[in-house]
């Protein structure tokens, strides 16, 4: 049996998504820029997907730009914004717990002379709003804060942050990395008052290599890829048509089932946390069971057991989880998120992330926790010897 509990790293595409990708490869393989029928039929499908994505996010379809995923959407939003607005100011605010696709950009911008403020987070994984208020100045051009943290699942108070920005410096723009929130929280970008937001298909049962950026029509950005002028001149390059077809299906399924899926995830999360708490000792759960945390991410430290050893032990049972953030854990051996939350080294070293999909079952979770218990006990015994 395969028990896949690493859904924050990526998800399995649904059958309908796969069918849509195959249809594009086998039948609708025209170039959407071509003037003939083969191109026009594909262009129409792309328009449909754009409409669906704009419906899911609550914006106008002209405010959606397809990208190769979350990383590129973050790059386009941030680099593209800085490129277009560099004369307005030199200061940018972000948080210490952003995904590497955002943090690496700011490290780079710092080298080119930008002044970057990295907001602290508290021990529960929430950014300091007081520090945000104090840091905003007339020189601030951009604030970028993620919606759901990919390691611990904390949901940042995006609307409240937007209101603080509007009050202190209405000229500053607000970018949100929404890669882990789409389909897990019901929201609308207009209501959140954000200026740009990134999503990625493979995090919600769509294909890899496709994502989108919502960019408010009043926010000026410059393209970072130049060429044929596709995507309203903001992202040149022949469109990833199979990816867009697959994304369209994934978004359709998301719109149809979002509320039920979130309910399922909340039930599964409650069941998992309850089992962990009753079956395991010497643990610290960083992802609480309340609505300040996303329903699909559970970060738990199994004190005394190195997370990588646990990950590989579980892998032998067909149970797949992650240590820290799967997307960045190859680079560094520790979690910058748990570090920012001021967790002890022993906690950071033993933290695993279990991340759920609405397709997971209680049986799978039961099996995974039993296997975790078995490995925790045997590994702790070896360590104590
Ligand atoms: C919060 C967050 N942002 C961005 C990304 C990058 O997305 P992609 O894999 O589509 O480039 C990820 C991937 O893990 C993520 O979790």
From TrEMBL:
The protein's name in its UniProt record: Cysteine desulfurase
GO MF, one example: iron-sulfur cluster binding
Domain Aminotransferase class V stretches: 3-365
Domain of life: Bacteria
Keywords (A to Z) from UniProt: Iron, Iron-sulfur, Metal-binding, Pyridoxal phosphate
Family: Belongs to the class-V pyridoxal-phosphate-dependent aminotransferase family. NifS/IscS subfamily.
Keyword check for Acyltransferase: no
Cofactors named for this entry: pyridoxal 5'-phosphate
